[in-house]
Design a protein that fits this description.
about 35% helix, 13 helices, about 15% strand, about 400 residues, 14 strands, three-stranded parallel sheet, single chain, alpha/beta
Length: about 400
């Protein structure tokens, strides 16, 4: 493939596209092929249970199905399911980096940020493991696999490190180990360590962690569903699995509504003005309302508790928080100016049930054509490339 052909194939409107949210369907031997000897029989492994493959940890901890992959091996998409049952049914691009690169070529994607599946989107599933030593080994082995995935990705795949947040000292050591010297380009973090007996994120307990993120120059990603919060109370009675999946998928956005408000009103962004956060897979159409609501309530109801906030809440958002869209039509057309053109990025969510597959390029063209060329380039490439410190590719 010539440079010109590659550039045309991996761009939209002449802009190389960075997809800031995709997922890695972990291969069956991810842990067992890398774990230290005494842990090989305890780390996550795939076993047949009740006629279906499941991830099992330790003696008998059920980590659930293989993932949330709905893109099939023939390239079609399965509807009405949270995920295919076996690896054989799935598109190899869900698991294999070489196949993923070929998929990116077909979708017109230049580079891709990659998140976990089975371990939870913010390492939260690791907390099902009671043995803290095993829990930490599982996180470390996972990050080792991510370093290999990034190497195999030919400067196009950039998985985000998982964090052993159950111990702040271990968390600092691990992100230094895997993100130092420009290795992995960011981390994915739970938005609710308090649900696991840890302090809230604005507590001084976390200061060494935030200090390390600043020193390494890495963004902190909050992917929806990165806590143990259940969305079950969002559901009325009588729903089948398809409507339940739809409602749950929508309800997950509310978790990031919560984390954005608290990042700002806690004063954390005032204390760490160079630290960047990303609201991942939460959409953007609702953000103008949130910004307006925060500014209004700050002026109307906070007459004296202002020492921690030197600016309007919306100004903190525009300075330090990014968000992403995929399926939306309204948000990209109507909300980018209000949110701030430097705060919006693009994603596909491949290979999950709601992913923008297989028509990523068509959707981009439809919703971004009318935008100024400079704004379009920021949304599709420049903001993400700068935030994640991505290399230029030919």
């Amino acid at each position: 493939m010539t440079t010109e052909e590659s550039t045309n194939k991996l761009s939209v409107h002449g802009v190389p596209v960075v997809d800031i949210d995709s997922h890695y369907t972990e291969p069956a031997d991810l842990w067992t092929s890398r774990a230290p000897g005494k842990y090989k029989s305890l780390v996550p492994r795939v076993e047949e249970r009740s006629g279906a493959p499941l991830w099992i940890v330790d003696e008998d901890i059920d980590f659930g199905p293989l993932g949330f992959t709905v893109v099939k091996e023939d390239g079609s998409k399965a509807y009405g399911t949270i995920g295919l049952t076996t690896y054989e049914e799935m598109d190899a691009a869900a698991t294999d980096p070489k196949a993923r690169l070929k998929l990116l070529d077909r979708l017109g994607i230049s580079q891709q940020i990659v998140y976990p599946n089975v371990v939870g989107f913010g390492s939260n599933r690791f907390m099902d493991i009671s043995d803290k030593g095993l829990r930490t080994v599982c996180a470390q082995v996972y990050n080792d696999a991510l370093l290999e995935l990034q190497s195999a990705g030919e400067e196009r795949l950039f998985p985000q490190a998982v964090v052993p947040f159950w111990d702040v000292k271990e968390a600092v050591e691990e992100i230094e180990r895997v993100c130092g010297d420009g290795q992995l380009k960011g981390i994915t973090m739970t938005d609710s360590p308090d649900q696991f007996g840890q302090p809230f994120l604005n507590d001084p307990y976390w200061d060494p962690f935030w200090d390390t993120c600043v020193q390494l120059g890495i963004p902190v990603n909050f992917h929806i569903g990165s806590s143990s919060s259940s969305t079950g109370n969002m559901l009325w009675a009588g729903y089948g699995p398809e409507r339940s999946l739809a409602i749950t998928s929508i309800a997950l956005f509310l978790g990031n509504f919560r984390v954005i408000i608290n990042l700002i009103f806690s004063g954390l962004l005032e204390r760490y003005p160079s630290l960047n956060f990303v609201s991942v897979e939460s959409g953007i159409g609702w953000i103008p309302f949130l910004l307006e609501a925060m500014d209004y309530q700050f002026e109307e109801t906070v007459p004296s508790e202002r020492d921690l906030l030197k600016m309007k809440p919306s100004d903190y958002f525009k300075r330090q928080i990014k968000a992403s869209f995929w399926f939306e039509d309204f948000g990209p057309r109507a909300a980018i100016e209000t949110i701030g053109e430097d705060s919006v990025m693009f994603e596909t969510d491949f290979p999950h049930p709601t992913c923008l597959y297989p028509k990523a390029q068509e959707h981009i063209t439809e919703v971004l054509t009318d935008l100024d060329e400079g704004v379009r380039r920021k949304v599709l490439h420049d903001t993400a490339a700068d935030l994640y410190n991505l290399p230029e590719i030919s």
